[in-house]
Known about the structure:
heterodimer; A: mainly alpha; 2 domains; 4-stranded parallel β-sheet; 3-stranded parallel β-sheet; 23 helices; 46% helix; B: mainly alpha; two-stranded antiparallel ribbon; 2 strands; 73% helix
Amino acid sequence: MSDPKPNELIEKIDYNPSQKGWMDVPVEIRKGMYCYASNPKSVEYVGLPHARPWNPLEEDWKLPENWKEIVHKAFRERLDRFRSFKVFMDICVRCGACADKCHFFIGTGDPKNMPVSRAELLRSVYRNDFTTAGKILGKVAGARELTLDVLKEWWYYFFQCTECRRCSVFCPYGIDTAEITIMAREIFNLLGLNIDWIATPVANCYRTGNHLGIQPHAFKEMLEFFVDDIEEKTGVKVEPSFNRKGADILFVTPSGDVFADPGTYTAMGYLMLFHYLKEQGLNVTWSTYASEGGNFGFFTSHEMMKRLNSKMYAEAKRLGVKWILGGECGHMWRVIHQYMDTMNGPADFLEEPVSPITGTKFENAKSTKMVHIAEFMADLIYHGKLKIDKSRNDNLKVTYHDSCNPARGMGLFDEPRYVIKNVCNNFYEMPRNTIREQTFCCGSGSGLNAGEDMELRMCGGLPRANAVKYVHDKYGVNMLACVCAIDRAVLPVLMEYWVPGVDVTGLTEMVANALVMPGEMERTTNLRGEPLPGMEE
Amino acid sequence: MNFEELLAKNKTAVIDKWFGVVVDSYPADTARFIKSQKDPFANPVGATTLKGLAGLMDELLGEMNHDTINSFLDPIIRIRAVQGFTPSQATSFVFSLKKIIRDSVINKKPDDRQIITELSHFEQKIDLIGLIAFDIYMKCREKIFQLKANEEKNRTYKVFERAGLIKEIPGGGQES
C-alpha cells in the first residue's frame, strides 16, 4: 500500500456537518451539554418511581422493561388532561416564527434547538401513536416510532430548554413551548430520568423547606450573621423576626438569597428595608419553614410543584398573616402568578394585600394574595416613603436584565426600572429586542444551573451576554441588575466568560445601599464592603 | 498592481466567501439563519463573525497589530470554543482564507511571479493569525474548565462552611 498523498489526506477532512434530514441525524450526547443523572436517594425520597443510578453517556440507561408502555400511557393521559397540550400537538403549522428566537438555538447553532424542532421531537411520536394520518403514512406524515434513540434525543433536548417562553411570544398560534417541555419532563420522571440538579433540590425542599436542605436553625443563623454584617457597615442593628404568629405579612424569598453571593447582599437589603419600615407600621416575619420561594417541583411535575408550593400557604395560615410578600425570584413568580391560585388556592383565609405604609391596594394580587418586592418598593418610592441617597450608587452604570418569569410570566416590566432609576443616576437599557417581553434568558433557568453543563450555559446565555456587551462597550455599563436568584447565581459566571468587567446585583441590594437609615453611622462602604463613591482611600 | 492592491480591490467578495466558510461549518438550517438575519442582537454568532472577519482582513492588509487581531479574533473563537467544535474545526476557518484568495484573486493572475511571491509572504500572515486562534481557543477552554471547577469548589466550600468545618485564621485566610 502506497503512502497517501497530501491531497488525498486533505480531501478526507470535512468540516461540513451532515446534510441528512433531522430524523436521520442521531443524537450525540456531549459532555458539557447535559446535567448529571438524578441521585436515586433523592428520587426515592419524594416517592418517584424507578430510582436507580444511571449515566446518560452509557448505552444502557437501565430503563424499566415496559418503558415504552409507560411513555405511551403518560402521553395519552396528558393529552386527555391538558387541552392545551393536545392543541399544541395538533396546531403547529411549522411556520418557523419561533425557530430563531430561542437562545439555545442562537447560541448552540444546533437546529434541534429551534423550538419548532424541539417540539417536533415529541410531535413526531404523537403523530405515530395518536393520529390516523401518522399511523397510516408514517414518516411522510412526519411520524416516527418511539425508540430508545428517540427517548435519548428527547432527554437531551428537553433539558436544553429553560422554559423561558421567549419563542411563545412570537408564535402566531400562541403555542407555549415551555408547556411542551414541561410535559416531556413529566414523562422522564415516570422513567426515573430526572437530572440531579432538579431532583436533589426537590427532595431537600420537601424535607427542610428549601432547595439547599438548610435546617431551620441554620437558616436563622445565616440571617443573624447578616444582621452583624449590616451593623458593621451601617451602625444599625436590624431585628428580624422568625415564625412569628400575629405578624401581618409573611416574607418568602429564594434560599439562594440567603446562601449564595451576590444574592446574600440582596437578602441584607430586605432586612434593612423591613427594619426601616418598622416604625412606619410594617409588621413582617420570615419563616424558617417556608424558607424557599423557588420551586424546582415546577421542573418535575405538576404534582410536585403543587406539593412544594403548598408550604407557603400552609405557613401563612399557621402564622395567621394577612398576606404574603415575595422576594426577588424568577420561576417562583410564574408558579404563583399562573398556578398557585388554582393549585393550592383559593387562599380565602388571607386578605387582599394592602401596603401598611402607603395604603395602596395591590389589586393585581387580589387572588394570589402575594405581592412582589419590586412593586412593593416602587410604591414606597412613589409615595416618598424611602429616604434615598442616589449618589451612593454613582460608581455603578446599571443595565437591567428582565428575568424571564417575572417579565413574560407576570408582566413585571416597569416597577424594577422605576426602582433602579430612583436609587441610581446611571441607567442604560439594552437593545429593545433583548429586554422586556423579548428578554433573553440567562441560559441556566429551569434547573440547568449546574456546573457540569457549563458549555450549554455559555451557549444559552450568549444572546443575553451579547446585549450586555453592547451597553458595556457603548456606555461603560459595569452592573447588571436582575430580580431572580438563579440569575444572580449564574450571570456572574456568564459575565466572566463573555463580558468581564460587569458584575451582578439584585434590586434590593441597590435600594439598601442608597437607603438613608435613621441612626446610621457615616456609610463608607456598600454592603459588599467596597468603598462608596468618594470614600476611596 | 501588486498583490495586496489586488486583494484590497476584491476585499468584499473575499470576506463574503470567508464568512460563507465559517457559516457552512454549522448545519444547513442554522447556516441559513446565520447568513440571513442581519440584526446583531438576534444573531450574535453571525454579526460577531462577520465583524471579526472584516477586521482581520483589514489587519492582514494593514498593521498586523497583535492586540487588534486579538480583539477581532477572540469573539469568534470564544463562541466556537463552547459550541462543540473540535479544536481544528473551531480554528480551521483562518487557514481556509488561503484557498479563497488563491481561487478568487490569484487565478486572475496565475503567471505573475511577483504576485506569487507576495502571496507567499501574505500567507505567512494568515498562519500567524491561525496560531493566535489556537492561543485564544486554549484560553477559552481553560476558562470554561476554571468556571466548572469554581462551581464545584464553591459548592463544596459552602457545605463545609455550613457544617462548621471552616475555621477562620485570625488575620485573614481560611483552613478546613
